[in-house]
Amino acid sequence: MTDGILVINKPVGATSHQVVAAVRRVSGEGRIGHTGTLDPMASGVLVLCAGRATRLAEFLSGCDKCYCGTVRLGSATDTYDATGKVLAQAPVLAGQEQVEEALQPFRGRIRQRPPAFSALRSAGRRAYKLARAGEPVELAEREVHVYELRLLEYCPPDATLLVRCSAGTYVRSLAHDLGERLGCHGHLAALRRTACGVFTIDDARPLDLVEGGRLQEFLLPMEAGLRDWPALALDAEEARLLANGRTLPLRGAAREQAVAGRLLRAHGPDGALLAIVEPDPEAGVLRPRKVFPP
Length: 294
Fold this sequence. Notes:
alpha+beta, Pseudouridine synthase, Archaeosine Trna-guanine Transglycosylase, Chain: A, domain 4, 23% helix, 8 helices, 3 domains, 5-stranded mixed β-sheet
């Protein structure tokens, strides 16, 4: 196995860690990590980085996501999903028009409280461990961005939603909060991630095919995860300097694309990804952020 990106269609029931372990086992590559977990009950796009591509994980983990989720109205659970213990129940009286109206406050930039059963830390410990032990969990609200939220189908008590959102958004919290707003409680009954950054479900490969020996066939180049980033082509001397951690003069195409704080991908003469660079317009240079020497 070489360096690259592997997009898995995670099956329901498997943890993200189990998927990583399975790929490590069949590839023999120890350096494999994912760019954002999926709960065991969820399926869909799970992006893995292998070899040197693991150094790209920090740039890919903050990308936007898209989901198709089913909210089951009428009952609330402690985990905010179907795996949890039912805490409260109420009749579902809302019609489609009421559900559509209740969705409106959850669009745009919103404040959201993550579920107690999550991998976030509370008082220095994983929140889900505290919750399982019956200890209080205090997780602060945080701002997330829901770019698109559509009701795809409503067949009471189930509401199927399309959610396109920023990293860090919990669809489980959205399901719970929607149920509370409608006054009938709710939890997430099913979830499928259909996109993660530039990768969609069409890019994802079944885990059983990967385990069956087709891993190398499905491995994408490292730069695949950055294909929507502006790119710079370097000559041999520029590539040599950058590979040694040196800055480059900010000129030509780089100057035209230079925006403070914006990262670019730099490619060597052979077209391979060589580095991630950050323009510094004031100093007139390109600074290397990550270098992938050949």
